[in-house]
Amino acid sequence: MIDSDYDGRMPTAHRFFFVWVVLCLSLNEIAAAQSTVDVQVAGANVEIAAATPSAFRLSISFDGKPRPSQSVYLAPDLSPATSTVINEKGWTGIKTAVGELLVDPADNLWTLRDVQGDTLIPPGPVAQRTINPQSGKPFVLLNVGCASDKRFEVYGCGDGSDALLQDHAIPGVGNGHAVVPYYWSRAGYAALAVDVDDNAPPAWTVSQALGRLTWVFAGNSADLYLMPAASLVDASRAYADLSGPPVVPPRWTFGYLQSRWGWKNRAYIEDAMQQFISRKLPVDAFIFDFEWYATKPDYEVRPEGEADFKDFSFNPALFPEPANQIAAMKASGIHFVGIRKPRLGNSDLLVMARSKNWVLPPGSSGENIDTRCLDFRNPAVRDWYSQNTVNLLKQGVNGWWDDEGEITYSTYYWWNQAEIAALRQVNPDGRFWSIDRAFAPGVQRLGATAWTGDIHADWNELQRTPTHLLNWSLAGMPYVACDIGGFSGQTTPRLLTRWMEAGVFFPIMRAHSEFTVQPHFPWLFGPEAEAAMRKALDLRYRLIPLIYTLAHEAHETGVAIMRPLAMEFPNDRRCANRSDEWLLGKDILAAPILDDTQSRRVYLPAGTWFALGSGTPIEGGRTIDVNAKLDEIPVYVRAGAILTLGPVIQHTDDLPGGPLEVQIYPGKDGQFTLIEDDGATMDYVKGQTRRTDFVWNDAARTLSWKITGPYAGKDIFTDVSIAVMDSTGANHTSASIMTDGSQILPNQQK
To answer: Rounded to an integer, what distance in angstroms lies between the CA atom of residue 449 and that of residue 564?
Structure first.
């Protein structure tokens, strides 16, 4: 089993084992066992099935008939595709609408082909069972071949390295680390591996010399889900079909979220609220560390607990009247999010939990693990935890900050399930939201965000952050965040400002800091930095109609909000491993300043681009030099883009707040569908949305729109201000979008 306290390095014992495996592979000393479809051969059985319309399942067992995976990684309501059994020249397998998965029983080979019959995975040995020389326990090796004239180029396994292209994955979770047993290969397919134990996810490594990728499964069986996918977009769709689509978070979570460790008392909280409002700094939530419920950190609690420690109540120093105070916060547009820990601190509760075997046993792997940690895999634990959480929700809590849940690989999944059950008792149709320090496949379908943990306040960490967020996006978690400004260490006005500017283009925008440093309130860093951060926050809030639409797109397609350039420009080799700039959706290229300068080089892929808000075209396919003052962010928009921008508002409850500005970047035809709903309930899954399909005909210079969907709440946009970004400046025209319509926008260039 791979330790779940993964910190970017493999645990010592497993490092030895992994090196041994790689050496054996390099020396070509491992011979594959023969196997056949649905037939026992030398102790091994193979089963091929259509797991979904876009995914095959290759199951191998050395201890009986293969059993379909029962895993939290997988969506609970998989709908298998119609498949046909095929036999050809000794090969047998199944064919679906996406391709063929075949086995040659006589020669112990397997292969994957796409729907055109082209080979995605060349024929190679099926599997080998061997023994870990240290533990004496069995494991299964499953080799995946690569065409002899190509190299493995693999994306999507999480933040196991500081690059998008990766050559190995040791799945696990840790403080801001999440590596998943998944990848997409440029050969044209994606793969997700599942072991019999969700907390022992399979690992893989690439041998370019041997032209193969090797999975390592603990135990006597292996399940590999294979998804023919010609692109990262196709892979994202197939992966979402298999592991479950992400839900749409509450709309307020796309605003600015102010977090800190060290909220002092009631007056301190109320002063911070007033500062945000009076200074016109938009904000949608305050996120509270342990002090909202406890008088001291639970790190200081003895293993046997303490009689006066409160696990499920409010700290009266901060919240003497929690319901009234939280209601007052909400009246100002500020939501309440409180930290949670996976362990108990109260001595009486610990006695009870231990008597019921509700805590993890001594020696459990993971970070900050002791015998105070609840075992959320136990349904009785989840039910008890839910019941004790209900009253907190009734007082007004809007979301949870789940911290230090890297106990087992599946802890966050089960912990979130317990919190969801509590919400369903208080608000049956409300949207659940949590922010977790890691994730595993399947967590995205619950309503969770993941953040990159306790990072340090320095420029190197800012530069690493986009890569990690992009890797998580490709690994199936579209709602990713970081501690803007850095958690530990004192930030500077320039560093915080540049980090905030980058955060405008992160899916979730959250600043956080530890109690020993200056809190990351914008007004504490001088007037120049405050003005620049206000400008950045105003831009973030203007983008919310667009970002919220991308959240619906992620729900419907699995395609992430934050995307590497390689996703939209797969044939441009200069985009293949580039992560210091990225896309928001498919049309906005963010290239913020990530170092202590005012300049950078920006690569623009082929096509015509515009600086955001400008009508001057820039030809792509080249690198440009850019200068940006402290309050400027290099951002570019593709020709043909239609951007839906809201007005500047204080918080998302102010929406619509005025007309929608529709910016058109000419030079190509374009289309964008704005999606609106109530922002709070699950009614959107029942079709309660409003869709405004904008279409730009560049030759006719006409914008048309068509309305579908029944939603008609007070928060929808009713009017638009249309701006075509010509070289002479934007030409604005107003219109109503309560019904279908169109508008001709004449060219006013001279």
So the answer is: 19
